[in-house]
Amino acid sequence: MAETVTMPKLGFDMAEGTLVRWVKNEGETINKGDVLAEIETDKATVEVESSASGVVRKLLVDQGAVVPIGAPIAIVGSADEKIESPADGGKQKTAPASAPAAPAAPSAGTVQTPAKAAPAPPTAVPVPTGPVKASPLAKKMARDAQVDLSRVQGSGPGGRVVRKDIEAALAGGAVGAPSAVGLAAPFTPVSHEDQAVPLTKLRLAIARRMGEAKQTVPHFYVTHEYKMEALLSMRTQYNAILPENEKTSVNDYVVKAVALALREFPNLNASFAGDKVVRHGAVHVGVAVAVENGLLTVVCRDSDQKPLRQISMELKSMAGRARSGKVRPEDIEGSTFSVSNMGMFDVENFLAIINPPEAAILAVSSAREVPVVENGAVKAGWRMKATISVDHRVSDGAEGAQFMQALAKYIEEPLRLLL
User: Residue 11 domain-assigned?
Assistant: First the structure.
């Protein structure tokens, strides 16, 4: 039986997507799970998989068309069965590009500013042809006050500069004048024009969502500093026995630790939903990945149940797809808590904005070797700061602080991550 493939919803705030390219054409055989098309959302270019096996009988939208979520885009069925197009009609056409706006004519009464003339070349300062005649006292006063003797008119015998001439020059502002030898040209600033840089769809989406989050979600923050010696030592030993392409990062350990701590604090593995809080049964940790012109959050599902090695490999794979613009729908949707790690940028501490509808996000900074006090003695130690941002509608400061303490149990005793 023929099956209609629809525009998928990728993220709770997605309303439409642009069909960038058909990977399969009409008449081609396709299996369930094969890539049928590529669509562009506010976040990324995503590969859409076929939900059925058979033959691509009809493509319902043109490449470049903007399609609402849930709208039919293709029909897959057997080669000989009769098919009917969906009730809402034929192909959606490519949206015409907006014509660039013509420059507005000046309105009546508008003052036209003339173009700035190029600055005139600096006037050369005349260089005296011989030594300046000055009394010893006048020379000392000139040196101390940085007065250019060549610019001072002498009133002594034969035009000699004397004390009263220096005093007159100081009163007249002739201080710091350039010396006669090696004259510096007057400072002329270099003009740099302003640039208007259009925002990409991803940057616009980030601007909209983060603006809404900061304005509508009441954030509070709790910072904790973690001892990192044991974790860094275990990571070194663990990586020593792994192939080069499977070596773990500090972030992998943080994701696992966060997932286990969330099991103890289900109220933070939650979403605010108006008159109720939805506590999610699964722990799906989202990890922010820097891509061109913005950020994407890739999702490590069931992070509390997966071993470190699998978490590491999955995050590497999804981050690679995100940076190449080839993420899959399941890569970027469904997170229940997020981690933003800027440790690779030598960051001491920072705050992150909550990713709605999640209730919290953890901002992870760099592991740094710093002076620490233990048993009354100062020594070098490895420390890492992390700050949790929490939706105050869902939780309060005490719970946020308790979560950060529970997280310390897993970070500072990392063998717990392997149990």
Answer: yes
